[in-house]
Design goal:
The chain is mainly β. The protein contains eight helices and 25 strands. An eight-stranded antiparallel β-barrel has the order 4-10-7-8-9-5-12-13. It starts with a helix and ends with a strand.
Amino acid sequence: MGLVVTAIMLLLTCCTQVNDNLGMGIVPPNQQVTVKFAQLKNGINTYTTIADSIVTSGMSWVYAGSTTDKKFGRTDISAIAQFFPLYRSDTVDYGAARGQVADSMWILSNFKYVAGDTLVTNKFDVYRVDERLYGDSTYYSGLNYKDYVESLPMFSCEFTGNATGANYDTLRLKVNDKTLAEAFMNELLSLDTLYYTDSTKFVDKFKGLCITPTPTSTTNNTIYKFGLGYSNSDSYFTMLVFYGHDYLTETPDEVEDIIVRSYVVSNNTTYTIGAAMSCFDHDYTGTPIEGQYVYDYEKDWGATRSTTYVQGFLGVTGSLELTDDFVTELKALVPEGGNVFINQALLRVALADISDATLDAAPERFGTYFDYAKLSAIPDYNYYYEKNNSLKLNYDGYLNRSHGYYNMDIAVYLQKLLDGDYTAPYRLTLGMAAYDYLTEGQVALLGTGSATPVTIDLTYTIIGK
């Protein structure tokens, strides 16, 4: 019996031996895969860039205000918008006997706080626009409002606080230049009824208003946005309201009637087609950014920068150029007779410092663009698809607050570069995320020649040998 058991155990032992080479010839060589990792950091040059040709017309809001920062300088934003007749209380024309007198003008809006210090009093100047603007034209962020307005402001106004957009806020327009302001109000007061029934004729005569931060104010440090809806039934709106008086009795100082006329500040609404835009001016004088940025995305960018920047409100951006050395190193990963599929390519950019103040001011997310001026994103950052399908891209782009860096997965972009779909120069711009570029956010980043240069951590699969 013992001999039988021993024989069976020997048999089982023989049957459990494994041949590791079994089946190796089944998978053809050109279909065998190997996963590898590489870190690329040579030939990634960094620059500071800025674009002044980002479209700001055709939006639902216009922006006005200013902020000041030691590192990022001063930002001034001016709003230009046309307005159209909406309501008038005096519909009967009494002629010269009417005794009409202009009284005051107000801006009613559910405008909202965007950035800055709500405890300070912000002062604005209000100009009359003297050049016709058109709702079907394109106007850019670098537009100089001074080229479109009268030489002096008609009115000024002030605001303090955190505008929330609940109900509406009011700005009384105080007379700044008496001659210009009274002429403007009297034109509105005596305007023929025809202009109130033909919006084109109206806007040909009253070409719009410009609201801009008063340059001499030392307290301006807040930015607000004004809604461009049709009326106060909309979720956002801005109206210009004019008040006047009638003296129809024999007693000169007895007010018989109060005239009320309102005008909607509009932009491509269902009511009419109007023009509105925001004008951005950045002054980096005396800051680390002064003299370091370039405008032209097509020309030579000059010297590389060890520190670059990303700023909201259409300020400076950090740009990368992948040089021939980088491309050579990337292509060297492809074995002769094989192919490479890039699984992940984490573009890692470190913050220049990770203090609490820096982390609080830093943008939550970066977008990566071929052309920031057009918000033309690389394929990995398909922000339009992401938003309209309520999903998160593999791209990531968010700030890692624990370690103080941003990760952007640019695998598709690098795969296309490797496959020859792009031509040199290979340039990318890191800017504010597509739906946040008109919000506050600013950060300094480490770049070429710094202690923590930009790197790309590559996970890739080799197919075939």
